[in-house]
TrEMBL record:
This is SGNH/GDSL hydrolase family protein. Residues 66-231 form the SGNH hydrolase-type esterase domain. Keywords: Hydrolase, Signal. It comes from Leifsonia sp. NPDC080035. PANTHER family: SGNH HYDROLASE-TYPE ESTERASE DOMAIN-CONTAINING PROTEIN, THIOESTERASE 1/PROTEASE 1/LYSOPHOSPHOLIPASE L1. SUPFAM superfamilies: SGNH hydrolase.
Length: 258
């Protein structure tokens, strides 16, 4: 009797190899698309930076200053105004009925140390009405708790008492989340000691669940998209709104003249 076993074994091996090659090809294509997306978003860095510089020259009754990194710049959004900083500024205008000047001191790629070296000296030249800070996400890759503590305390010490500081965002992956948990414990404790409001950015993102992975990120799978930035803004808005309307009660409507 002829045995078909070797034929089946060979056929199975061929099918397994084909499946493996197909999977490898899909992964390689995905990596290539993500790399291309990163390159495209890198090209937007000077565009966003110029947009915010131009915006800072616009006068406003309320001065809003932001400290941060590429998220504050709005990298990944369809336009700089759709960053969380832009969303917050629009909300301040709506809540107060007043014009808002936005000075966005953020720099793409900024770590806490770079914010101390670059953004804080520039921040000292302003007397802002509203301040938001979101910094530290870029420290996670090479995270050192003591270095982070020293840097974040310098940032917080430079802020007015009513500044609103976000904790670090939700990273989704356990390895990074362990480091984020340590960083956020440091940040929240330091913020509490100084009486600062800490916006719950991590919680706001985490509440989105697994669906957030599919809906919150730009094509580079790292920066937020427009929806993601609205989630970021939602972490700030309760505190920002309360501060804005206390400082700037909404103007009564102008009576029409006959």
């Amino acid at each position: 009797m002829v045995s078909w076993k070797p034929v089946f074994v060979v056929g199975s091996a061929v099918a397994t190899c084909a499946a493996a090659l197909s999977a490898w090809s899909a992964v390689a294509q995905k990596r290539a698309r993500v790399a291309a997306a990163k390159a495209r978003l890198n090209e937007t860095l000077p565009v966003h930076s110029k947009w915010w510089r131009d915006t800072a020259t616009t006068d406003g009754e309320i001065l809003y200053v932001a400290i941060g990194d590429s998220a504050a710049q709005g990298i990944g959004a369809s336009a700089p105004k759709n960053s969380y900083v832009g969303v917050i500024a629009d909300h301040i205008r709506s809540a107060t009925g007043r014009t808002v000047r936005v000075v966005n001191l953020s720099v793409s790629g900024a770590t806490v140390a770079l914010a101390v070296a670059d953004q804080l000296p520039r921040f000292a030249g302003y007397e802002p009405d509203i301040v938001t800070v979101s910094i530290g996400a870029n420290d996670i890759a090479d995270f050192d708790p003591e270095t982070f503590r020293e840097g974040i305390e310098k940032v917080l010490d430079a802020l007015p008492a009513d500044a609103i500081v976000a904790d670090l965002p939700y990273f989704f992956f356990p390895r990074n989340e362990h480091k984020v948990a340590v960083a956020n414990e440091i940040l929240r404790r330091a913020g509490g000691e100084r009486g600062l409001t800490v916006a719950p950015l991590h919680e706001a993102m985490q509440k989105q669940g697994l669906r957030g992975i599919m809906t919150q990120f730009a094509e580079d799978l790292f920066h937020p998209n427009d929806h993601g930035y609205r989630v970021w803004a939602s972490a700030f808005l309760p505190a920002v709104t309360d501060l804005a309307v206390r400082k700037f009660p909404r103007k009564p409507p102008v009576a029409a003249t006959a």
